[in-house]
From TrEMBL, chains A, B:
Protein name listed in UniProt: Transcriptional regulator
Keywords: DNA-binding, Transcription, Transcription regulation
CDD domains assigned to the protein according to its UniProt record, in alphabetical order: WHTH_GntR
Xref: Pfam families: FCD, GntR
Keyword Transcription regulation carried by entry: yes
Coiled coil spans: none
PROSITE patterns: HTH_GNTR (PS50949)
Amino acid sequence: MTVTEKMEPIRVANETLASQIRNCLADDITSGAIAPGTQIDEQEVAERFGASRTPVREALRELASSGLVTIEPRRGARVVELTLDRIGEMFEVMAEIEAMCVRIATERMTTLERYQLHHLHNISHKHVLDENIDEYDATNKQFHTTIYNGTHSSFLIELASNLRQRIAPFRRAQFRGIQRLLISYEEHAAILNSIFAKDSDTAAKLMRAHMLVAGAVYTRYAYEHPSRLE
Amino acid sequence: MTVTEKMEPIRVANETLASQIRNCLADDITSGAIAPGTQIDEQEVAERFGASRTPVREALRELASSGLVTIEPRRGARVVELTLDRIGEMFEVMAEIEAMCVRIATERMTTLERYQLHHLHNISHKHVLDENIDEYDATNKQFHTTIYNGTHSSFLIELASNLRQRIAPFRRAQFRGIQRLLISYEEHAAILNSIFAKDSDTAAKLMRAHMLVAGAVYTRYAYEHPSRLE
DNA sequence: GAAGAAATATTTGTATACTTAGTAATTTCA
DNA sequence: TGAAATTACTAAGTATACAAATATTTCTTC
């Protein structure tokens, strides 16, 4: 064995080109960089990534399956554009799934996990005081993800995460206005209390309400600002 | 204009080659024709359908997204092979989703839809008497689908249908034994009663139990017959 | 004969080329 | 001038070709 024994090839990316493109496009869509309804030209995306159409097509197919774009045969792909009804349905289901998650998580979380959640809640308090919407949004996401993880059900974690991603493009109006930030924080506090009290049914009920409020906020906003419907 | 004016081109299929292959493979997998764990060779599938690898690859990507196959970069695709734990998690989530569906459906179904459900239930009774497992299974599926549709939430319908499809390859031991058929039938009857009584909470509770029993039946069977784990 | 290394074969990932369908533009005829 | 039809063009679907990585086999060495 020499000193120069074969090193790990520093595999630049354990990912395939197609999957990188998929992740990148997914980010663009969920962040709103590519607006709902936008037609996606395969050639254009290919050039942007310096690749051929093949991996782009595969990426688009995967995005279609996960619900971020729609593909019509011979007519290409476009970022999903949902009706208000449909978005309402998604929030409704999301509310139920989140309720399920918190109910199960309340029964299964470890002490450590509960305190991690509590810690996140404390952090978000600072963001409320600072009126830092972006940071609050990020911490909010972590808060929910931590609850998903608390179910210890990999399948449920995946399902909930996927749904959250699908709704993402339509949540951007969420925290418009500082008062909404505070309300969200207080709702979290109530949920957290139930979790620590190991009252799973109450936690679930509160979570369902919390999510339905978010849905209502969105749909009302979208209704009042139809031109900015994204 | 002559008599031979251009006829509708009898568009053989409004589908693309890739989507046909996808549907076909999905059937093969859910029906068990291709067993879990089977490695899928792109070239082989391409030849089977008389096509090139390109549409086959796209089909496999979509199947991966919907959870029927797993793809590892550079190592190809294989039919999902799940651990018992994972299957248990899926049944657990499925039970919750189905409970959600029946709760919402109980509140929203039209009179016509309720009677369609009742009709299906009557049909399944015949299959119980005939001990016709395959037919019962088909009617059972329709029964559940009718409940999904009763939610009038296209999003929820899609979600539930997708989950059902994902579990399909692992449900085949479901109705082994006539007594299980009868039990299933009677559980349906109780659910149906609650729906007609518009008691959505009870319907949900019964449905959850109904699905959890199915999951327990499977996992017990799989545990007792590990070699036939499919 | 077994273990490891080199060579070969197979298979996936990507690029390019070609075919076909859909759309837009232009032309022709009423 | 307006509508229908033809043509041209664009973009998606599919096939083929090539490159890169993994799997397999063979060969060498102990």
